[in-house]
Amino acid sequence: MARTSLKMLADHLHLSQGTVSRALNGYTDISAATRLRVRDAARDMGYAPNPTARRLATGIAEAVAYVMPQRGDSMSESFVTPLLQGLGEALAGRGWDLLIVQAATVPEEVAALRRLTATRQIGGVVLSRPRKSDARIDFLRGAGFPFVVHGRSEGCAAYAWYDVDSRAAFAEAVGRLAALGHRRIGFVGAPLHFTFAQDRRDGYRAALAAHGLDADPGLEAVAALDDTAGEAAAAALLSRDPAPTALLCATDPQALGALAAIRARGMVPGRDVSVIGYDGLSIGRHANPPLSTMAQPQADSGRRLGEMLLALVDGGAPTDYQELHRAEFLRRDTDGPAPESGPPNNHREKNR
Amino acid sequence: MARTSLKMLADHLHLSQGTVSRALNGYTDISAATRLRVRDAARDMGYAPNPTARRLATGIAEAVAYVMPQRGDSMSESFVTPLLQGLGEALAGRGWDLLIVQAATVPEEVAALRRLTATRQIGGVVLSRPRKSDARIDFLRGAGFPFVVHGRSEGCAAYAWYDVDSRAAFAEAVGRLAALGHRRIGFVGAPLHFTFAQDRRDGYRAALAAHGLDADPGLEAVAALDDTAGEAAAAALLSRDPAPTALLCATDPQALGALAAIRARGMVPGRDVSVIGYDGLSIGRHANPPLSTMAQPQADSGRRLGEMLLALVDGGAPTDYQELHRAEFLRRDTDGPAPESGPPNNHREKNR
DNA sequence: CTGAAAGCGCTTACAG
DNA sequence: CTGAAAGCGCTTACAG
Description:
The structure is a homodimer. By secondary structure, chain A is of the alpha/beta class. In chain A, 41% of the residues lie in helices and 15% in strands. Chain A folds into three domains: 44 residues, 434 Repressor (Amino-terminal Domain) (Orthogonal Bundle); 128 residues, Response regulator (Rossmann fold, 3-Layer(aba) Sandwich); 152 residues, Rossmann fold (3-Layer(aba) Sandwich). Chain A contains 13 helices and twelve strands. At the A-B interface, helix 4, helix 5, strand 2, helix 6 and helix 11 of A face helix 4, helix 5, strand 2, helix 6 and helix 11 of B. Strand 2 of chain A pairs antiparallel with strand 2 of chain B, so a sheet runs across the interface.
């Protein structure tokens, strides 16, 4: 029942372990005949090298780490599960394993990466949700370690990344709202240490200018990524006078919160105030009313990230693996024409 | 810059590697003085043993694997991210690593586990969503390998598990609906190869009997776990005559689908037809109207699963680690009193 | 109480 | 083309 080792295989073949090892690893100085003989026997005996021994001998780990986003709102982390599934599939295609790095702070994440890379436990890293200035990326670059980023940060020209053009997405969203007659478009943004937050705000601002709408700083908010934060931020924006007739939100959970804020004022999302989110979460279909959103591409980002990382491990140039994908507008029911004379923003006063 | 090895540390201390190793590993036959000296030096030089070498020498891996649920609806897998976070935290407390097993079929999962355990890449396994008869569990039990199950299966008396009593939860839900005057309560169940599906249906049926309600097989459906399947199943149940005045769903995504089915018939969930889901997903707050549900305990199941597994690895008896938690009713807006004379189930006819 | 040695299961220069 | 040997970085009986 014992797992067949190299020694067992070699003994059975009356060859030395070294020869068998080389035959299996495709060394060209082995005669074609014995190579075949060895491979057949290996298959028959169900031999597979022990990864731990191999790792110790070669210093190369057939495993990569994925750095989990830090604990936050579970809704805004719903991209993780499908990403892990895709990543796992891509790695499984080559027999590589997938490790999870889970820490509460960036310095702890860096420490974990330092340990894993220094001891050669992993051969590559996938990172999500980079900061504009990201200590994890700095570390990996400094160590010359293969990694690919799900998103971008400052200095992304130098490394491999997979991102969705959320700047363009937010510009498109503004354009759509402008075409619907909206002139005062509010923006619920995300904390600006996230690169994507900066991108989305930039897209919003640029499109405002392009459409000749004035950029009222009072129409911009920054909130955490979740629904509760989105609701509070949206409520604040809606209480301004004149109020925005439309709200763009950096995430779908924020947008769901915004819908709640609108309903709380006795108004109807999509009629009195339009809302467009970003993510394309399927749960948006069940919102009240169903949420219009800029949807990230269906394409399997996890699988693609895995493929890119394996290519880097094989010696590919990081700059050859930089992919910018497009988000697509997913029209549901929260984007409507601007109300004739702005939204009825006298709700609070009326109820006094 | 090279990582300090055992050899470097031993040379620096003018001791043999063996002595240093034993001092660090708490062997009692080392003098207290040198033990202290060694530990101080190890700290100062930032020594940490190479896990790969240690693993090869001891045959013990300081890592565990989590078997991902198979690719399905992302909404119904939203428990995975928080679970991984909690699990990762529990393991990090002891410096253990977390591996992901991702496969498309159960046999592939078993093959992956066989490989990981045979090569001593892992020291334990966490499993989610067991089948009633589960080949992965059979394999792990046969191998005598430490594992803990998130849920239960047949034969769960013999192994460690963490579960929520969904049988009791569904019984309670039926009781609440019965108290609201509902006599015809429909049930959208999950595929019965999942243990939890059986439990939930059993709880439903038992409570029906306990409350003197008749168990009409025509009021029971089986559907996939997601919203689309839930919507179709609910639509079918609602078209029966007489129709149910309330619907119990095995998952929150199914329940969201049920709300859609009710609205599609021009009826109002919670008024014309009541709905109670199960999961307690936060997204239910944004449903139309907000979804009443049996919420799994807030308690951090991932962390607890990790703690239990570590206890098993330390030699704990599996039967000492079996925890049944309670779900709590989360009242939102979809459970209401039964309509006077049943729901207006003439929608289709009227529209002809 | 400490050291020397063997071993975990591989890979890979180095000879021949 | 193949074998013998050293080495990856640890741990752990076994002596003394």
